[in-house]
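To whoever is covering the structure queue this week,

Two jobs came back overnight. Logging them here so there's a record in the thread.

Job A:
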Amino acid sequence: MMLNDIPITIHPSIDMQIQFKHTVLALMMAGAAFFASCESKTEIPTMQIMVTKGAIVLNSGDVYYSLDGSITYIDFTTEQAQQNVFKYANGMSLGGSPDDVIVYDDKIYVAGSVENAVFVLNAKNFKLIQTISTTEQMGEPEGNCPKRLCAYDGKVYFSTRGGYVGVIDTQTLSIVNKYQVGPSPEGIAVGMTGETPFLYVANSDEGLGQGSISVVNLLSGSASEWTNDRIAYPMDLFLANDGMYVLDGGVLDGNMEMEDTGIYRAALDGSNVTKVAKDARVMSAVGYNILYYHKSKDGDSGYSVLDTGGDHTSDFSFQGDASSPIAQPGAMAIDPNTGYILLASSPEEDDVYSPCHVNLYTRDGQFVKSYPAGACPKRIVFLYRSYDD
């Protein structure tokens, strides 16, 4: 099984995506213009082709063991991994337990959960541009512990443990709005219904079993919330095919182990909730595919691909990494330009001091190379540059 029909993303921003089901090589050979019409007076629209420059690995560290968070940069040109790039660029630590990272336009945004801040970095050199204090600008507890990030239409949105989503204006780098959502929101995403953008928020309730999904109309600012008995601990979500796919952590059983973990499909209004992948623990989505790691209470584990076009699941295997095995799967990301998969591994549980690493695989799961990473790699995103740079 391979990840078929992965689209090419010409611009990595959510609101400017143009997707084509071709390979990068075919796209480059086709030239940098589309011929939309044969009429002689029709202007030929041009496009900017983006190629993958490298990958940013956000390492959360471990506050309990006094291990600060850090950033590893994997340079695909030199095929080298640079450790602690934020610290070397700024002469300071990233702090404890950073939770998420995104690249939007020419900036990198990092959610600093312990520092109650969103760090804004220059995407070219990792220099700190601004530290946005979420508690100072939103108040307590609204801005407490920023968790997850997404971007849309010149704004960066971040969820907070205080039960809010803050809105950063990317020009002024200040918080210009906030929305009250459900308890302990985690994953967030923006989707369009007609011409109206909606923000969808997975409210985790800290795994206490009363999770929900908030829906915010970004034009009117109105917010609603829906619940379903099957979705107890929503941690992340992905929008596709006029619906959403929710990664749910399940509930604790009598032996204090999680059960009913998986990926659920739901209509955007919360109806028609169906489990489409059981025992899922980590997922990454691109195009119409969701690659996920699953592990049952009995210890059976593996990888699968969920085709959201028909909610069809197929087994997926990673091969050739015997010298750098994935002991404890963590961050997972798929580059839409190449189909390459990056999969981060932490050591076995309760071993925070052993080295972590990130493996690079082809779209069909063949091992290419392993890179060292910092403590507890948690998120992976890609950096792009224009083809004519």
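Job B:
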Amino acid sequence: MTRSRRDRLAAGVVISLVAGAAIGRLDSSPGWDDTAVTAGLLAIAAATATFVGGRFPWLFAITTGMFVPLFELAGLANGGALAAFLFSGAGAAIGWLARTVTSA
């Protein structure tokens, strides 16, 4: 892997971790009850991270979506928080497709 690919991958991971942690924290905060906004933010963050990272969309789906269940399940909430992976996975797929189309 060349240095520029490694740098893009690292940047994508940083984006997904920071955005995912912020979204997970927001979603678990008291009074926050807007699932559609959380889902949209997860999809946008994963798409952006995958577009920047360029490869391994599954990695960005996991690293973006993992924080919502981590924050929610720690509070013994229901398993519905695991749906975050669906939205981050869809966003990562869109980001990968966009990256593939624009780099061709």
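Note for Job B: Residues 40 and 67 are 15 Å apart (CA to CA).

Please reply-all if you pick these up so we don't duplicate work.
Q.
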